[in-house]
């Protein structure tokens, strides 16, 4: 067996990218889920084994189901008791990776604190003894990006009430009429808020990421999985900076870094996401300017689109021959809503219909 051999980021990314290059939709979707799942382990410095990659490839190729992949990985580590420190980390990376891939593959979701708690339980059961349990103690964490200082996390006795409040506020929030930039700013605020609560002893960033990915999919977004696969540590540091104030040092909490991450995630923009830009000793204004250099004028124009319009554009990028009914199924909106949106988008010059209704195709008129 290959389980003890740890792979570098470059190794596993190259192997899984091969399925994306082949272009078969089912394999692409599976490969993207695995890339996100494995990439997220980097938030805790964990790397996958060769055995996990081989198991992932068997699932992508249709040789085994995702449930069988889960059983294989769990069974492999139950059989091997001789773990040293490095292998213990690899074990966590492998087990949690397959469980993230499984959750991302499932087409179910409930917007509630219970769902977040359930995600943590499913990811870390058998890995952390407190999987799925709200912490009953206060915590601090030394952060590199803060020169060893810590974010102020929620007090253990306020976690449930604070989660309930944040979720109730988000549930009643209306995205109607917001352009994509305004929506992303709000997504960043909500995400950083529930992360700052830090309801669990460990595994908060990975649980938050899985929850947010599944939540964003309910808006019809096609998620750019490479963003999480390649920038999971940036995601965590951006969450840290969104929740850190040190007024004596002139440092204020800022969600700008997290917004850049979400723009790459949802809009496939090419912001240069560098962790050093977020370090509190780095010139913050230069960081934001540097990160924004690669955004084209056309991409900036897409910021004026609504969430529904962006979801439709993303669906048409994958298949311009989609019917309005097929678009509605993909983005989770009614066919009536899609018909209204596509008419409005044609009037705005965002898309055009070529060759008629029956055998025609959609043409995207902007770079998005």
From TrEMBL:
Tell me, what is an example of a GO biological process annotation in this record?
A: regulation of cell division
Q: Does this UniProt record's set of keywords contain Amino-acid biosynthesis?
A: no
- Outline the extent of the Fido domain: 111-263
Extract the InterPro entries matched here: Fido, Fido-like_dom_sf, VbhA-like, WH-like_DNA-bd_sf, WH_DNA-bd_sf
List its EC numbers: 2.7.7.108
What organism is listed for this UniProt entry? Lachnoanaerobaculum saburreum
* Entry-linked PROSITE patterns: FIDO
Q: Which CDD domains match?
A: VbhA_like
Report the protein name in the record. protein adenylyltransferase
């Amino acid at each position: 067996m290959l389980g003890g051999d740890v792979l570098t980021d470059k190794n596993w990314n190259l192997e899984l990218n091969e399925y994306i290059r082949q272009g078969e939709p089912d394999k692409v979707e599976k490969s993207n889920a695995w890339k996100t799942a494995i990439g997220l382990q980097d938030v805790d410095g964990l790397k996958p084994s060769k055995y996990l990659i081989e198991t992932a490839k068997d699932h992508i190729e249709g040789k085994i189901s995702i449930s069988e992949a889960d059983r294989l990985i769990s069974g492999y580590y139950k059989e091997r008791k001789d773990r040293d420190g490095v292998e213990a980390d690899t074990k966590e990376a492998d087990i949690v990776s397959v469980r993230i891939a499984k959750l991302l593959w499932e087409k179910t979701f409930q917007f509630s604190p219970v769902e977040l708690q359930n995600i943590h339980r499913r990811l870390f059961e058998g890995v952390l003894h407190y999987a799925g349990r709200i912490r009953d103690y206060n915590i601090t964490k030394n952060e590199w990006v803060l020169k060893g200082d810590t974010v102020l996390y929620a007090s253990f006795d306020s976690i449930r009430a604070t989660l309930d409040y944040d979720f109730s506020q988000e549930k009643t929030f209306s995205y109607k009429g917001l352009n994509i930039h305004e929506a992303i700013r709000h997504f960043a605020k909500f995400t950083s808020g529930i992360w700052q609560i830090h309801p669990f002893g460990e595994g908060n960033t990975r649980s938050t990421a899985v929850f947010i990915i599944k939540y964003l999919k309910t808006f019809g977004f096609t998620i750019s999985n490479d963003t999480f696969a390649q920038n999971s540590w940036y995601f965590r540091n951006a969450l840290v900076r969104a929740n850190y104030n040190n007024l004596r040092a002139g440092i204020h909490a800022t969600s700008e870094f997290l917004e850049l991450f979400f723009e790459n995630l949802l809009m496939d923009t090419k912001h240069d996401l560098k962790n050093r830009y977020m370090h509190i000793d780095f010139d913050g204004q230069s960081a934001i300017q540097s990160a924004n250099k690669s955004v084209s004028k056309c991409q900036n124009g897409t910021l004026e689109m609504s969430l529904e319009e962006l979801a439709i554009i993303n669906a048409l990028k994958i298949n311009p021959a989609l019917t309005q009914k097929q678009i509605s199924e993909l983005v989770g909106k009614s066919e009536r809503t899609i018909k209204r949106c596509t008419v409005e988008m044609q009037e705005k010059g965002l898309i055009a219909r070529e060759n008629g209704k029956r055998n025609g195709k959609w043409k995207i008129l902007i770079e998005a």
